[in-house]
Amino acid sequence: MSIFDQLKQNDGINTAEAEVKVDLRGMDRQDALHTLDHIVKYCKKSSAKTLFVTFDPARPGQGETLFQPVARYMKIEKRNGYVDQAVPVMTAEAGGLFITFKL
Questions:
Q1: Residue 59 CA: distances (Å) to CA of 10, 21, 55
Q2: pLDDT of the chain along its 103 residues, tens only?
Q3: What is the DSSP string of 27-96?
Q4: Using CA atoms, how far apart are residues 74 and 86, in angstroms rounded to an integer?
Q5: How far is CA 2 from the centre of its chain?
């Protein structure tokens, strides 16, 4: 059993149930954060409870993934009282964060 299968069994999160989904794969950092900012503002206006953010997985020699910038963004939103939790969801095909908002 791969590490990804183990994580999938243990996380208990069904990403298909996220109210809002955004795919940042293939985007550079600046464009991805700009898109994320627009999506989070949309979630605030629409009172969405959950958001699933997908980005490229870590690959040898490709440098930093979007995990840290996206997680930092959500950390600020959590400090501001909007995010309840942000759980990493990693698969072999993509990385991601499943965010639950406070309503």
A1: 23, 23, 12
A2: 454 554 554 456 788 889 999 999 999 999 999 999 999 999 999 999 999 999 998 888 877 889 999 999 999 999 999 999 999 988 778 889 999 999 8
A3: --HHHHHHHHHHHHHHHHHHT-SEEEEEEPPP-TTS---SHHHHHHHHHHHHHTT-EEEEEE---SS-EE
A4: 7
A5: 22
Determine the pLDDT at residue 49. Answer: 96
Q: How many whole angstroms separate alpha carbon 84 and alpha carbon 35?
A: 21
Q: What is the DSSP letter of 15?
A: G
What are the φ/ψ torsions at residue 59 (nearest 5 degrees)?
-135, 145
The reported pTM is 0.84
Locus of tokens 């464009």: 31
Task: Confirm if 33 and 25 have CB atoms less than 8 A apart.
Answer: no
